Amino acid sequence: MAQILLTRHGETAWNALGKLQGHTDIALNETGRGQARALSAALGPSVVQVVTSDLRRARETGEIIAGALGLPPPVIDPELRERQYGVFEGLTRAECESQHPDAWRDWVAQVGAPPGGEPRAEAAARLGRALTRILATAAPAGGDIVVVSHGGVMRLWLMEVVGQAIPVIGNTATYVVGHDGARFHAQLRGGA
Length: 192
What we know:
CATH class of the largest domain: Alpha Beta
Distance between the termini: 22 Å
Number of strands: 6
Number of helices: 7
Helix content: 40-55%
CATH superfamily of the largest domain: Phosphoglycerate mutase-like
Radius of gyration: 16 Å
Strand content: 15-25%
Number of domains: 2
CATH architecture of the largest domain: 3-Layer(aba) Sandwich
Oligomer: single chain
């Protein structure tokens, strides 16, 4: 049976600066490209397909992985996109707090999305739909499918799946995701 290796894209310049990216289309930096190459080397021959979000940082990570593993170019799925952060995009957390204090307070309390932002439940449901679709169309013979997405939306979805808080997801951190016919299960690859 196929399983998904759900990974966050490699580092970007905005990641290095602590800026929220959301739908802003930022490319990988050299560190991020190196992270994608290192992940490729760690994946092995069980990977049969790569699927990425349509944002450049995820696409480039997926292209590096697919190329290193001798696979076809990644399939692009827009539902794998990062959560839309609205007025927070391009800002650090400190800038969000100082420029939009009420919205930031609601964000931290997890009771609201920033103006122009995507609600938590909608973002998590969107990623869940994409992963369900990817597993449903996987070859019956199995093999792993690398899915390159984004830390914020991954974290929201994973918290729903495992039923507990998930720490901030680092660049190229990877979760092994499967489905037992009734529900998803997920575990940090190489973790507990």
